[in-house]
Specification:
Layout (H helix, E strand, L loop, with lengths): L4 H15 L12 E6 L13 H17 L3 E3 L3 E2 L4 H10 L3 H18 L10 E2 L3 H16 L3 E11 L4 E3 L4 E2 L2 E2 L7 E10 L5 H6 L9 H9 L2 E12 L2 E9 L10 E4 L6 H4 L5 H12 L3 H6 L6 E8 L6 E6 L11 E4 L5 H10 L7 E2 L17 E2 L10 H14 L3 E6 L5 E2 L12 E7 L9 E3 L5 E2 L28 H4 E4 L2 E5 L7 H4 L2 H4 L12 H7 L4 E4 L6 H15 L12 E3 L3 E12 L5 E5 L7 E2 L6 E3 L2 E8 L5 E3 L2 E3 L8 E5 L11 H8 L1 H10 L7 E3 L4 H14 L3 E2 L5 H19 L3 H16 L4 E2 H11 L4 H10 L33 E8 L2 E9 L4 H9 L2 H7 L4 E7 L3 E6 L1
Parallel strand pairs: 1-2, 1-25, 3-4, 12-14, 25-26, 27-35, 36-37, 38-41
Antiparallel strand pairs: 5-6, 5-9, 7-8, 9-19, 10-11, 10-13, 10-18, 12-15, 13-14, 16-17, 20-21, 20-22, 20-24, 23-24, 27-28, 27-31, 27-34, 29-30, 30-31, 32-33, 38-39, 40-41
Helix pairs in contact: 1-24, 18-19, 19-20, 20-22, 21-22, 21-23, 22-23, 23-24
């Protein structure tokens, strides 16, 4: 009989809340454990079933650690600034503060319904007045240390949308949203000098227990060693120095041309009069492309500038080209092109008929007419200064020569760029900076004014927080930011002088860079957090979140933390000791194909499993034997099963199950509220952990939750069979092995195998006519972190008053109980069964005491009838014995 999950879960959620069961406190003699979730952005659509996966994992760990006797910090909050809230507010005409608070209330309700053991007294909201104050305070620390600065940099500006777009939002010079024209335009921006920490951000990853994220961050930082080499161009206007950075100075003799970016600072000087028209047109086209488009384009484009540069070693002239695959903001904005040893240079040289000179050979021999570039290390050839040297030695020798002759220097370069920190939007933290204003009147009333942006002035700490003004019209549109409309807020007088506040706001990343620190001391009005709170909980022991944050969020948070470390505000150089990325949960859809009639109705339907149906070459459609088809999809609730296979309820064709990212467009978003309503929060928690390893991508199937629900019903039923009887030896062994396996797998975050182990133990207990109360108690203790509501309720029905001595002040509950232990004596098999092979094939098995010698095992094996028959009259030539595992007799 199914238990009433609604009343059980409501009862225990109310109990935990009323008794503050999960309040985080530090007590003498206990170890601390800080387990952190990547806090959510509170969107209007609420949680879907993919969100609770990581939250459930951390909740299980937090509950387990509490039962192990640790003091646990397991907080939750909301990353509530950002573009989505502002866009929704613009669409609906509702202020983002209103929609944000409404969304937070919904998220909080959904999270509570899952029974998560959060200390809700520590909740943070990045848009709250007290939180903004300390985010701005950290910005001022960056400013004081010279790490926050202004610069004019080219950005993707969309006039129609009135905002700057990311590279990924620009396609063929137009906005992805709305298909509006986009141009590259220099804008005054605030940047953070993250490059000053590039080496430390890369090298200090080594001591962290992180997954492949470490390599992703290293790749993003992109540390490379090489040389900066000086060329001199002979342009119509006179000599123009061009510096290039190369990671392969050993290939310098093979440089057959130079390439500058269209936005190179000396581009205008290098363009010859006869090339001015074509080169300028090329520059204009490049302005309409994002950096991503420029660097990823398969077809390399460019124009000859009309100028030549002198090769620093050979002394001959090489042409200077302009090409958009070189970026002005990266490196020096110019490259030396060695087409024999670089793929992009090779493609460009082929396209423009430029020389390809081999200067590195795999074996030191010369090759002519290269079909493809050789990009690996090798031996220098056609390079008089370094001929015959292997690449590492050749690099060092070339750099030494360049430095000796004043032609270049050894240099470390990074792909990492300084962080563009300002946004021209409304819904973000105001930047706590203002500037002097020259005016003869009141700029708020239309008087002319000039703002001196070269003299930024920080707010005093006592003036924080600088709050957003209330604006009726907060739509973007001005390159200086939406806050330019708030005249009374922007302009103010101080000591008789006029000043103007910064009208750019911070990005959404700002609040998420330090929230884990505010959790330590969220109600402190004097400091971002106290030293005592920091010492009590930091660093974070376990951080769980999506791999989509593997680079930027984690890199930015580590950067801020290192700045605070250098400032003496925190005491550890790294904030997160262990990091785990949960795998995405996909939604199932069921595909079939249709042929459409001219009026758009379905003429024929085809199975989704038909292998003769192929995607069209240009993508977007399908065809079968020349017949144009369209793919359509159903969700799980719409399908019919026939002989166990999914079919279309109307057309009867077989459907192909496809796991895809959950989206409203596909209709495969699963709302956890619906799952909890039908099956209960404990079932949802268990199923998400039972689907597979935490880090693995997994498809959601509502039918799969039935199995874990049956398991919970079975546990509930065991309470009716519980008796005060002693467990049998078999039950004791399984009980202790269950505790050992669940404990070890919990430590390794192998939640799915924990659940499998508990299911085996529950099945065993169900087979007994009388269930030992002590054994059932052990099962409930193991189950408590996973399915806490049912475990608590069953414990009450068993009459268990669970409380540790230190918990006397709290109402008793299973969540405060001590984690069970095991005795290894019960986990060891004293008698084992060993397979016996003859020439590699199993011919029998022998059961022996665990401490048996090889001779004893062999003696019993030779007495086995099947083994004797397989040997026959053949002689035993060799015996292979793996202790306690297998015996193999080689005969012939």
């Amino acid at each position: 009989m199914a238990y009433d999950h609604k009343s059980v879960e409501a009862r225990w959620q109310a109990f935990w809340k009323e008794n503050k069961t999960f309040r985080s406190e530090r007590r003498p003699g206990r170890q601390k454990y800080y387990v952190l979730d990547m806090f959510p952005y509170p969107s209007g659509s609420g949680l879907h079933v993919g969100h609770p996966e990581g939250y459930t994992a951390t909740d299980i760990v937090a509950r387990y650690r509490r039962m192990k006797g640790d003091d646990v910090l397991h907080p939750m909050g909301f990353d509530a600034f950002g573009l989505p809230a502002e866009q929704y507010a613009i669409q609906t005409g509702t202020h983002p503060r209103e929609t944000t608070e409404k969304n937070i209330q919904r998220f909080r309700k959904q999270l509570s319904a899952l029974g998560f053991a959060y200390d809700w007294d520590r909740e943070v909201n990045t848009t709250s007045r007290d939180y903004v104050r300390w985010t701005q305070w950290i910005f001022l620390k960056l400013f004081e240390r010279g790490l926050a600065f202004q610069s004019e940099i080219p950005v993707n500006w969309c006039e129609a949308l009135g905002t700057v777009l990311a590279n990924e939002e620009v396609i063929d010079g137009r906005s992805e949203r709305g298909n509006h024209p986009v141009e590259r335009r220099p804008l005054r921006q605030w940047q953070l000098k993250i490059t000053a920490y590039a080496d430390r951000l890369a090298s200090e990853l080594d001591g962290l227990d992180w997954p492949e994220t470490r390599e992703k961050q290293r790749d993003w930082i992109g540390r490379s060693e090489g040389a900066r080499v000086r060329f001199e161009a002979r342009a119509a206007s006179g000599p123009v120095p061009i510096e290039v950075f190369t990671t392969r100075p050993d290939t310098l003799y093979g440089a057959s041309y130079l390439v500058i970016a269209p936005d190179h600072p000396r581009a205008s000087d290098l363009i010859a009069p006869e090339q001015r028209e074509v080169a300028t047109a090329y520059q204009e086209r490049a302005k309409r492309k994002s950096d991503l488009e420029r660097t990823s384009a398969k077809e390399k484009t460019g124009v000859f500038t009309g100028s030549y540069a002198v090769h620093p070693l050979r002394g001959d002239k090489i042409p200077v080209y302009m090409a958009d695959y070189v970026l002005g903001a990266y490196g020096t904005g110019a490259i030396m092109a060695v087409p024999a040893h670089d793929e992009r240079d090779f493609e460009f040289a082929k396209a423009f008929g430029l020389p390809i000179v081999e200067v590195v050979s795999p074996d030191g021999t010369l090759h002519d007419g290269l079909e493809e570039p050789f990009v690996d290390d090798g031996i220098a050839v056609r390079s008089p200064l370094i001929d015959g040297k292997k690449t590492p030695d050749a690099k060092n020798a070339m750099i030494a020569y360049l430095e000796e002759k004043g032609l270049g220097v050894r240099q470390v370069n990074y792909k990492l760029r300084d962080w563009v920190f300002s946004r021209q939007r409304y819904w973000g933290e105001p930047i706590p900076i203002y500037f002097p204003v020259e005016t003869d009147g009141d700029p708020r009333k239309g008087a002319d004014y000039t703002i001196d942006y070269s003299k930024p002035i920080p707010l005093e700490e006592s003036e924080l927080p600088l709050e957003l003004p209330d604006l009726d019209d907060f739509r973007p549109g001005d390159p200086a930011g939406a806050l330019v409309k708030a005249l009374d807020w922007r302009f103010f007088q101080k000591d008789g002088k006029w000043y103007a506040r910064e009208t750019n706001t911070m990005p959404q990343w700002a609040g998420s860079c330090w929230y884990y620190l505010r959790y330590l001391d969220p109600r402190n009005e004097e400091k971002a957090f106290s030293e005592e709170a920091y010492d009590a909980w930091m660093p974070v022991d376990l951080y769980v979140g999506g791999s989509e944050h593997a680079v930027l969020h984690l890199l930015y948070a580590r950067f801020w933390h290192k700045v605070l470390y250098d400032a003496g505000i925190v005491k550890h150089p790294e904030p997160f000791l262990k990091l785990v990325h949960q795998g995405m949960i996909l939604g199932m859809v069921y595909r079939y194909f249709v042929e459409l009639a001219p009026d758009g109705s379905v003429k024929n339907a085809f199975p989704g499993t038909d292998t003769a149906i192929r995607p069209d070459a240009e993508g977007g459609g399908y065809s079968r034997d020349g017949l144009a088809l369209e793919a359509r999809y159903l969700v799980e609730s719409q399908i019919t099963l026939r002989d166990g296979k999914p079919v279309h309820p109307e057309y009867g064709v077989e459907l192909l199950p496809v796991a895809e990212k959950m989206s409203k467009a596909r209709g495969n978003v699963v709302n956890p509220d619906d799952v909890i309503e039908e099956f209960g929060a404990d079932s949802l928690r268990l199923y998400e952990m039972f689907m597979g390893p935490l880090e693995q991508v997994k498809p959601w199937q509502t039918s799969g939750i039935l199995g874990v629900r049956r398991f919970l019903d079975k546990v509930d039923a065991l309470t009716h069979k519980a008796r005060d009887v002693a467990p049998s030896e078999e039950t004791q062994k399984l009980e202790h092995r269950t505790v050992k396996k669940v404990t070890q797998d919990l430590e390794g975050l192998r939640f799915n195998t924990c659940i499998s182990t508990m299911m085996i133990f529950a099945n065993h207990l169900s087979s007994l006519s009388e269930v030992p109360r002590s054994s059932l108690r052990t099962l409930l203790l193991c189950l408590c972190p996973f399915a806490p509501h049912l475990a608590e309720d069953c414990a009450v029905r068993l009459g268990l008053e669970e409380r540790r001595p230190l918990e006397e002040a709290r109402a008793a509950c299973l969540s405060d109980a001590t984690w069970p232990t095991w005795n290894d004596e019960y986990c060891i098999d004293h008698v084992i069964t060993i397979p016996v092979q003859v020439n590699g094939k199993v011919r029998g098995r022998v059961t022996v005491p665990r401490d048996s010698t090889q001779d004893q095992v062999q003696e019993l094996a030779l007495a086995d009838g099947g083994v004797r028959q397989a040997i026959g009259d053949k002689a035993i030539k060799k015996v292979v014995y793996v202790d306690g595992k297998i015996l193999n007799l080689i005969v012939g």
